[in-house]
Amino acid sequence: MKLTQAQLAKYMDHTMLKPEATPEMIDKTIAEARKYNTASVCINPYWVKRVHEGLAGTDINTCTVIGFPLGATSTESKVFETKQAIEDGADEVDMVINIGELKAGNDDAVVADIKAVADATHEKGKLLKVIIENALLTDEEKARASKLTVKGGADFVKTSTGFSTSGAKVEDVKIMREAVGPDFKIKAAGGIHSLQEAYDMIEAGANRLGVSASVQILEEAAKQ
C-alpha cells in the first residue's frame, strides 16, 4: 500500500487527549492539523470551543470524546455531554460503550445507550463513532459489540480509547470488519506510531485512524 501524504492525512484524527494537555499543547495540535490537513482534531470536551475556533476556515472537523475513557457514565450524562459538545462546535463525537453491560450480555442496554447518543448526534447532522475497547473484550465480544454499534445507529465502530491495556490491533480490525460488513466505517486508534502500522490498519479495514503520532507518520509518508 502507498498513499500520498495528503491522502493519508485525511485518514487521521489528529489526537491530543492527555489529561495534562495545556492550552499551548492544544494550539500546537491545531497548528499541526492545519499544516497537514488531517481529517479532524480529537480532544477532550473542555477544548472543543478552542479547537473549533482554531480550525475556522478549514475543512478539518472538530472531534471529541464522550463518556471517556471508561464508558460507565449514565446514558443521560452521555447525551448531555454530546449535546453540549455539539453546541460548542464538535462535528464528530467518539463515545465509549457501557463495557460492563456488554460483558454481562445485556445487549439491549448497550444498544439503548448507543442509540440515545446517536439520536442526539444525528439530530444536529453530526457523526458518531462508538469505542468498544477491544483490549477488555473476547473475540466474540468484539464481534458482538461491533454489530450492536451498527444496530444502535452509529456511523463508525472504534477499536480503543488508547487508555486501556492496549490499543488498536490488526486482528481486531479484521474481526470488526467481518462483523459489520464491507460498508460500515471503522476507526482504529491507540498505539499507531509508524507508517507501516497505519497502512496495516487501513489494509485490515480501517477507514479512519486515531493518532497522536500524526506528524511523525506523515513525515515518514513524505519520504516514501
From TrEMBL:
Gene3D superfamilies: Aldolase class I. It catalyses: 2-deoxy-D-ribose 5-phosphate = D-glyceraldehyde 3-phosphate + acetaldehyde. Signal peptide: none annotated. It is found in: Cytoplasm. Pathway: Carbohydrate degradation; 2-deoxy-D-ribose 1-phosphate degradation; D-glyceraldehyde 3-phosphate and acetaldehyde from 2-deoxy-alpha-D-ribose 1-phosphate: step 2/2. One of its GO terms (biological process) is carbohydrate catabolic process. GO terms for cellular component: cytoplasm. SUPFAM superfamilies: Aldolase. The active site is at 94 (proton donor/acceptor), 158 (schiff-base intermediate with acetaldehyde), 187 (proton donor/acceptor). Keywords: Cytoplasm, Lyase, Schiff base. Belongs to the DeoC/FbaB aldolase family. DeoC type 1 subfamily. PANTHER family: DEOXYRIBOSE-PHOSPHATE ALDOLASE (PTHR10889:SF1). Catalyzes a reversible aldol reaction between acetaldehyde and D-glyceraldehyde 3-phosphate to generate 2-deoxy-D-ribose 5-phosphate. This is Deoxyribose-phosphate aldolase. It comes from Limosilactobacillus agrestis.
